[in-house]
Amino acid sequence: MNVRPISGASVDARRGRHGRRGLALVAGGLLLAVTACGGGGSGDAKAKGSGSAQSKQSQAVVTIAPRTGAKSVDTSGALKVRASKGRLTRVTVQDAKGTAVPGAISGDGSTWTPSTHLAAATAYTVHAVAEDSAGRTAAEDSRFTTLTPRNTFIGDFTPEDGSTVGVGMPFSLRFTRGITHPADVENAVRVTTEPKVPVAGHWFGNDRLDFRPEHYWKPGTKVTVRLALDGVEGRPGVYGKQDKTVSFTIGRSQVSVVDAAKHTMKVTRDGKVIRTLPVTTGKPGYSTWNGQMVMSERLTETRMNGETVGYGGEYDIKDVPHAIRLTTSGTFIHGNYWGGDAFGNYNASHGCVGLRDVRGGYDGSAPAAWFFDHSMIGDVVVVKNSHDRTVAPDNGLNGWNMSWKEWTA
């Protein structure tokens, strides 16, 4: 009778032990499952070490001037990005439209400098990233607004955008205010050509800047001028407000040579003489300028009054036909219906180059009408063998009377 209970107890005990082992295994399984979700013992140590390294702050320090929220910031010299205890790796500066400001990181990575000025009255954002010796990065941002100028200037330019002009045409800018920071202004005017040719600017006084190549343009050249003057301080407290692109194309080559001694003009088109015309030039005491003169204006009819050029009341002709301006001071090559037999024989004008014409300019076969119809702004007229000196380079668009060395000095 006692055997069964003992036997039964033994069985229960065994079952109990087996059950506990089963629980232990289940618990172990749960523990393993939980551990597996955590990555395992050795994996934990790695993750903790890696996370700790990444969490260390970069030693690099980025500073941006001006700071966020700054207003009325100067358009030149105020924007500065620096890094200490590290090297700059990326700097982005752009306006609200996403237009980037170009610039360069220094060789040692310590500074970033903009390569151009900023526009006036414009909001900018700056994002800069630097890296320390361990490869850890630090970043800084800034948002600021540039000044709104009280006084501004623009450059009135010739030739017109989209025009086709002769081979002698410079790109000429006349500023509405005298410029005392010429280098800053000139650097903001970028001239590019297709095909490429070196082009240089030259200042006449403090309010005029002309650009030209060393020699006349080649026919077919396309010229593009970027006027990035917005924000340029042209003189203390006076800022440019132009942001414009101008393009023009060089047409065929036409250069006409006036010989004041022989009273003739040879018209050369693309290297070939296409016509020789009889002319009259300035009479003694009123000689025509020598030198290279560029056509700057064409008028089918105009009034010429001696009082406007310092000759008093010596003449006042209200209907001069086919007039083409060669100088600012009043030299024209024009039609002349009152000259009699002077053309090709003697000089009778007050300094202009005269071609035979009819009153009203209706005769298209007259030399003046023919020449007018076959000319364009930018064509060149060269006068030689006159008794006057060479025309001043700034008297009209006549910078070709300076050598390239003088032009680029």
UniProtKB/TrEMBL annotation:
Active-site residues, Swiss-Prot/TrEMBL: 334, 352
Q: Which pathway is this protein engaged in?
A: Cell wall biogenesis; peptidoglycan biosynthesis
The organism sits in which domain of life? Bacteria
In terms of Pfam families, this protein maps to: Big_10, YkuD
Q: What is the residue range of the signal peptide feature?
A: none
Q: Which UniProt keywords apply?
A: Acyltransferase, Cell shape, Cell wall biogenesis/degradation, Peptidoglycan synthesis, Transferase
Q: Where is the L,D-TPase catalytic domain?
A: 254-384
User: Which PROSITE patterns does the annotation name?
Assistant: LD_TPASE
| Keyword DNA damage tagged | no
Among its keywords, does the record have Acyltransferase?
yes
Q: By its UniProt entry, which InterPro entries does this protein fall under?
A: Big_10, LD-transpeptidase, LD_TPept_cat_dom, Transpep_catalytic_dom
CDD domains the UniProt entry points to:
LDT_IgD_like_2, YkuD_like
Q: From the Swiss-Prot or TrEMBL record, give the protein name.
A: Ig-like domain-containing protein
Q: Name the species this protein comes from.
A: Streptomyces tropicalis
